[in-house]
């Protein structure tokens, strides 16, 4: 009887415990409790390669990134945003190894060496490109100042290129160092942040174990966040039955939603649903969403209890529960007004991102989203009222970042980058460069100024007293017809630049240099040349002599005539060859090659006799249609260009003749006004160099 009573006393509590366990396992818990057991886990990952002397290189997870290596991890990190499941009161959470890109924890020495060789080739090209761009920007800086439109923007970009060039040089030295040392493995490093579904606290976490496609993590605080719940992992796993997926329904990053959802089968393709919890009808965890498939409960239980045996796991959870029991709950995070959706737009393009719903209407794109267009073009950015306002357009050969119109065309301010080719920053209209902007290309002049319909019109200069102005004169400045006038050299001041010029202040500029016509062809001589030359020298004005080239005489004949009739002293400016043929005259003379050959004869003959390299004076039409065909020997000469429009010539030039309608005190009639292409200091350096 006593034994019978004892058996009953043992069996009844045992049965009660079993019944309680069954109730615990099979009685459904609340839906909100299940959602509170989830969290969003964000990881930034990269490979680390230690070098000698304490240096370090960082590699991206994949080898398909634009920058294959860096001195700073931020340049190569891979950011991943997934769902994770709390499974203990000590802050353990479970997700898949998609969080670290499913890459190995170490990069083998052979793979590291291959990446270093690829990086070495990449950096050689990158440094060459940046050097060429920097030279173009330096040339612009030498010829411009803060009064020029767009100067500050170009200088900011110049500083950026210089900074990147220094970084590339330093990085290349480290890569060379890595190639010289014995092969080493690179190891994976990840920074993990956790945001619980229950509230907006951001917690840091670390890895406990990685196995079988899963990652077991633990919060650094080793406690379950206040307000959060957790799933229990049963040693013998949990039945599946009818189950649902609890996860975040978005694309991660800017589209991240505040609360997880119970997803439909079609929603499992959302990237953030990776790592989501498969929950059975009793509210127990029976699987994990991984790689588009379900990781079953047996694999989960095996992973967890290989880390801690069941008694240890239970004891540690009980202790953590007691410690957290007295904590006050944290206010719940408010729900967002946005939802995330993948859908076809009215123009049959695929959109994925944030939307808002209005009664009786299709969803409107609002917030961050990505649009896929034909040809591989991708748009992503901020949408308002179903229109992309600001964002990025990614194409195979170029990228654009800035403002858009309703037709996905760049409109407003934006930056277009064509890797290794061009950088443009400025105004756009209906998909074309329009307004003010600047373009920088390796080895070419910076084009900073006005654009229209995608084409560069030119740079509108602001004329100030800080610029260097000069004049060129001939017999026409001494009278017209029978009326003759002398030049009053003591009173020379430029008083007008002609109409349509952007002038800052009053025009009252000194004449800083003067060129005087001496000869033309093989017989013509300016009768006032000797007098004007003598007066310019007497009044201390830097002076030079020019010859007007004729297509009816040879270059040798004209050079002999010029040298016989002209005076070029060591302290004078270089002689100038004035070349102004029409297209018809060039054709009649035999074409560009014939003209260039005779011009080179004149230039070389005069240079040899005078000891100064002459300057070539041409018009804008000649620059556009003929000068590009000139031989390399001719293109090395400095150029003086006549262009009378509102824009500065787009070519490497020494002087620019901006108007034939200028006015100079001391000279009767109109005078050609010229501008030196540089600063006052550069003009002084130029005078020093040509007077040697």
UniProtKB/TrEMBL annotation:
<protein>
    <submittedName>
        <fullName>Glycosyl hydrolase family 25 family protein</fullName>
    </submittedName>
</protein>
<comment type="similarity">
    <text>Belongs to the glycosyl hydrolase 25 family.</text>
</comment>
<dbReference type="InterPro" id="IPR018077">
    <property type="entry name" value="Glyco_hydro_fam25_subgr"/>
</dbReference>
<keyword id="KW-0326">Glycosidase</keyword>
<dbReference type="GO" id="GO:0016998">
    <property type="term" value="P:cell wall macromolecule catabolic process"/>
</dbReference>
<dbReference type="GO" id="GO:0009253">
    <property type="term" value="P:peptidoglycan catabolic process"/>
</dbReference>
<dbReference type="GO" id="GO:0016052">
    <property type="term" value="P:carbohydrate catabolic process"/>
</dbReference>
<dbReference type="Pfam" id="PF01183">
    <property type="entry name" value="Glyco_hydro_25"/>
</dbReference>
<keyword id="KW-0378">Hydrolase</keyword>
<dbReference type="GO" id="GO:0003796">
    <property type="term" value="F:lysozyme activity"/>
</dbReference>
<dbReference type="InterPro" id="IPR002053">
    <property type="entry name" value="Glyco_hydro_25"/>
</dbReference>
<dbReference type="InterPro" id="IPR017853">
    <property type="entry name" value="GH"/>
</dbReference>
